[in-house]
Write a structure and sequence with these properties.
Blueprint lengths: L1 E5 L4 H13 L3 E5 L10 E3 L10 H5 L3 E7 L6 H13 L4 E5 L9 H12 L3 E7 L6 H7 L13 H9 L1 E4 L5 E2 L4 H13 L6 E5 L5 E2 L7 E2 L15 E4 L2 H10 L4 E4 L2 H10 L4 H15 L9 H6 L6 H8 L5
Length: 323
């Protein structure tokens, strides 16, 4: 049995690889770079280039399960083509990473989910909420929608370091922030469990946290940093639970700057994000302000036997990255 990890050098796939290595389960790392990881071999793979579809199977003829991490919003047809190819190669199981907010926002994710059901293969669908360490990270990196830790990697990392601030359009909506390690632990189980799960799971953190928990107060200017100078001037600055946890751990005041959906979308466009990405990501962020993420789930503990990581513990463990 060999597991194929697409998006193999990304934030969740790389962590799945670490779990599989600990279990002694063989894996192949598929990515555009073709790099290996954790002593697993790598191969070049591009969803839009079917000439690369055979590369993983040239490395292992016993691939039984595939972890699907999608790099684009409009990728349904390419993903279906690869799924068909993999089925011909006797792959039995597909585990799809989407998002808790995919329904109604990212139709291609729903289309691929339904395609797996229609093909009558073994499957599982992971629907995580916002990662502890993503949103502005995804904007600046321009590499997919749900594959970076929000606060400790890329976007929020840079603005927290440079300005002691982070930016969203989520207001005081409550969000059960999840760690990539927890997503990876669930994915590894679904990929390797003897019995298929054949269902979707909301992958949520253990507590509901706000970026904001008080009324808006005017904030009329932003410093000219890489991201902030792209933001229209009428943003709002607030105390928040997440910011309070960061402030206590780092020993300095960290502030959440709340933007309107339109401001965030314009900031994303100014940072170089395509129109469809900007609209979708700004809509997801603003949706949290309206309560779209205000829910809890026991899926992580039910599947892995362990409680998901609390944001406070995540910050304490990783606080050196914000120094």
């Amino acid at each position: 049995m060999t597991i194929l990890l697409t998006g193999g050098t990304g934030k969740t796939s790389s962590r799945v690889a670490s779990v599989l290595k600990e279990q002694g389960t063989p894996a192949i790392i598929a990515s555009r770079s073709g790099k290996g990881l954790d002593d697993f071999p790598g191969c070049k793979f591009d969803w839009y280039d079917n000439a690369t579809y055979g590369n993983p199977f040239a490395l292992a003829s016993d691939i039984t399960a595939i972890y699907i991490v999608l790099p684009q919003l409009d990728i349904a047809e390419a993903a279906k083509a690869f799924i068909d190819y993999a089925i011909e190669k006797k792959v039995k199981r597909f585990i799809l990473l989407t998002s808790s907010a995919s329904e109604g926002h990212i139709p291609s994710h729903g289309a691929i989910h339904q395609y797996l059901i229609d093909k009558k293969v073994e499957y599982g669908v992971l629907q995580p909420t916002w990662f502890m360490a993503t949103s502005v990270a995804q904007v600046l990196k321009l590499t997919g929608v749900f594959n970076a830790e929000n606060f400790s990697e890329q976007g929020h990392l840079h603005t927290i370091r440079a300005e002691n601030k982070f930016y969203t359009a989520s207001g005081n909506g409550k969000i059960p922030l999840i760690a990539s390690a927890d997503i990876a632990a669930v994915a590894a189980r679904l990929l390797t469990d003897p019995q298929p799960h054949n269902r979707d799971y909301l992958i949520l953190g253990p507590e509901l946290l706000t970026y904001d928990d008080v009324r808006n107060t005017p904030f009329l200017s932003l410093p000219p940093t890489t991201f902030a100078r792209k933001v229209p001037p009428l943003a709002n600055k607030h105390p928040s639970q997440a910011a309070k946890i960061l402030s206590q751990a780092l020993g300095r005041e960290i502030t959440h700057v709340n933007l309107s959906k339109q401001q965030l979308e314009q900031a994303m466009l100014g940072a170089g994000l395509p129109q469809d990405y900007a609209e979708t990501l700004a809509g997801l962020s603003a949706g949290a302000a309206d309560g779209s993420e205000e829910r809890l789930s026991s899926a992580v503990k039910d599947i892995t036997g362990k409680e998901p990581v609390r944001f406070k513990d995540f910050v304490e463990e990783n606080k050196a990255v914000w120094a």
